[in-house]
Structures are given as C-alpha cells and as structure tokens.
Amino acid sequence: MNPIERRHPGRPFAGIERRRASRGASPVRVNNEIGRGLPMQTTGETQTGAPLIDFGTFMELREAAAQEYEAGDVESLRRMATRHPPASYFGPSGETRLGPDRVFEAYEQGLAPFAQGGETHFEVLQSAASDGLGYWVGLQYSAVRVADSSLPRNVVLRVTELFRREKGEWKLVHRHADELEGTR
C-alpha cells in the first residue's frame, strides 16, 4: 500500500496535486478530495490491428496539425487529441483546463481572436517515446493574424506536449504553452 492509500483507504486514486503547504501541512493531496480528480482510463494498448507509426513520423503529423490549426482548421487537432481522461492544458494566457472536453474547448476558443491564414512550425529541442508515452519540448514559431489587423503578429511559444498511445494511435494528453519572454 502506498502512502496515499494508507492515509485515504478505500478512496480511488486519480493523481496528486502539489500545493504550497502551510507549516505542518502535507503538500500532497489526492485530487479526488478536492473534487478535481479525473479517473484514469486504460486504453487497451496492445489490442489494435492498425500499424503503429513511429514517434518521429507522428511528430510530422503533429506539426501539420498545428499548421492547419493556425490556418483556422481545428479538425486535425480534434482527431489527435485524447477523448479519455486524464487530459490537461496549460495555455499561454495562464488558464488551466482538465478533462478532454474542457481541453478541446480551450483549443476551439483559442482560434476565436485569430483570422485564417496563420503559419507555424516547431523547433524540437528534445523528444522521446517509449511504447506508450511520448513527449516533445521546444519552441513553436507562429505568424498569427489577429482578426482586427491585416498584419501578422510573430509569436514564439515555449511548448511541452505529452502523448500516449490509445489503441495504437498517439493522442495528445497534455499541452503547456507560454510565450517566450522578449517576443511579446
């Protein structure tokens, strides 16, 4: 039995949240205690008839989905995003979204201030993948068109994305993006 199970017997464990703790208080709390926990769903990783694509090939598809998104089309990203918890999003303006529906809602809302015709590309600084998890860390360079301006705005985001295989397909389960200092 792990320490959390010892302190909370019989409660489902959905993850932990690290918080600034007052003196004498534990900095770790079970998410379910505060009502924000999301159940983990396993995905039947090995039960697939589809050919597995390697992570490098997948990253090319991910960058193409980002290019389509910047051009105003969210459908490729919709197909790539998980529909199973846990899923999370830490956006450029500081918002946090938990759960696949709320995460995708943030992606759709992220398009609202922009006109079609933006462009983007990735500079991958690190990436790796195992059988079921993958990630990339790097910069995303974008020329976005704000709806009320004819001139593009250049934006550089620091990005971390995590993926997991679900029935043989890589799915986006976490995105953390914020604007690189000095490019605002």
Notes on the protein architecture:
The protein contains four helices and eight strands, in the order αββααββαββββ. It is an alpha+beta fold. The protein has two domains: 3-34, no CATH class; 55-179, Nuclear Transport Factor 2, Chain: A, CATH 3.10.450. A hairpin with a 5-residue loop joins strand 6 (133-146) and strand 7. 16% of the residues are buried.
Instruction: Tell me the span between the first and last alpha carbons.
Output: 48 Å
Proportion of residues in β-strands: 35-45%
The CATH architecture term of the largest domain is Roll
Order of strands, widest sheet: 4-3-8-7-6-5
Round the Cα radius of gyration to an integer and report it: 18 Å
Q: Regions with pLDDT < 50 over 5+ consecutive residues? A: 1-48
Could you say what the CATH topology of the largest domain is called?
Nuclear Transport Factor 2, Chain: A
Overall domain count: 2
Structural class: alpha+beta
Q: Care to count the β-strands? A: 8
**N-to-C order of helices and strands:** HEEHHEEHEEEE
On the 0-100 scale, what is the average pLDDT?
Answer: 77
Summary?
The chain is α+β, with helices and mostly antiparallel strands and 184 residues long. The protein has helices at residues 3-7, 55-70, 75-80, 100-111; strands spanning 16-18, 28-30, 88-90, 96-98, 114-129, 133-146, 152-166, 169-179.
